[in-house]
Amino acid sequence: MAKGDPGSTTRSRRAAPRSRKGAVGDPELVQLLTPDGERVDSVTGPDGTVYRVDFTDEEYRGLYRDLVLVRKLDAEATALQRQGELGIWASLLGQEAAQVGSGRALRPQDMAFPTYREHGVLYCRGIDPIMPLGLFRGVDQGGWDPNEFKFNMYTIVIGAQTLHATGYAMGVAMDGRTGTDDGEAVIAYFGDGASSQGDVNEAFVWAGVFNAPLVFFCQNNQYAISEPLERQTRIPLYQRAAGFGFPGVRVDGNDVLASYAVTRHALDNARHGQGPSLIEAYTYRMGAHTTSDDPTRYRIASEVEAWQAKDPIARMKAFLEKQKIADADFFAEVDEQAKRESVHLRERVLAMPDPEPTSLFDHVYPHGSPLLDQQREQFSRYLESFEGSAH
């Protein structure tokens, strides 16, 4: 688990002492780790901001461990759905660096608003990976406490969570919880497809006008289900922020170090009262949109292969090997841990008890209602009408 913070002491001295503007081939892209694992000491963004990280060797290894574990648990969930144990699953395959990097950049007091794919951020916030599986298995409504973990419930309605996040962030500012180093910031996750939703653009308006301490984090994985990016926008997504009066930046979403650095900078600006910003994490969805999707119908194999060469885990592993921060024993131990935790996750999912059918009425209202009681009674009679029913 990475806990490092730019500027802290006792850091690795193996990182190459180089700096540059943007990334090779894209001067607007913030990148600290090239696809072949070469480390860049610092990068100057288009607005002049200098991005860097300063981690210990242990923290670099922790980030790699996060990436591997998150991918393995995600793969296990996909396998469970294919075997009929989950109703559906939205995989994050290929987007691990964007999620782990931004998730680890959050401070304990910060609040996150996810979509339905932020399993990596959820993991970084310390939530048991079983929790979203209960939701997608249909045995609960996603049972974690948002206030305890500072991580809101999964949101299925596309883009709605950006409005939730904006309202929450406005409340943070009104309560005076900004303007200091320990102030609170908010982050809202969404995809490139959601950027075309009215909810997202309304959130941009409100956040900008009210100077909300909010980071909009767009994981641009190139497709809104089957619609490619070029059918959604004529300019890079991060440039949309300028029209709403706040800054935007594009980061290499397959680079966990850059994702961390850019997100930490944006969150710290927000907590100090400098208002909202937009991060476009330029990444790729290697798998299907969900397990009900067939991506071979709308994209070609060569495109997938080109992005596989930028795999975020392979990139981090190459860096660790080149800098001699990790050896074969470490990688084997991480793989074994990932396998062990995924097996344990599977066992726990299969052991989940089916809920009582009438429990769907339990949490509609905190104190119930006459109408709800009537509906519960009608549903109970319906269940009892079946021969051999236990209800």
TrEMBL record:
Protein origin, superkingdom: Bacteria
The coenzyme or cofactor needed here is: thiamine diphosphate
Ranges where the Dehydrogenase E1 component domain occurs: 67-343
Leader sequence segment: none
Q: Does the keyword Oxidoreductase apply?
A: yes
A biological process (GO) of this protein is:
branched-chain amino acid catabolic process
User: GO molecular function of the protein, one example?
Assistant: magnesium ion binding
Query: Which InterPro entries did the record assign?
Result: Alpha-ketoacid_DH_E1_comp, DH_E1, PdhA/BkdA, THDP-binding
Q: Which UniProt keywords apply?
A: Oxidoreductase, Pyruvate, Thiamine pyrophosphate
Region labeled Disordered — which residues?
1-26
Which stretches does UniProt call biased (Basic residues)? 11-21
- Protein name from the UniProt record: Pyruvate dehydrogenase (Acetyl-transferring) E1 component subunit alpha
Q: Organism source for this protein?
A: Micromonospora globbae
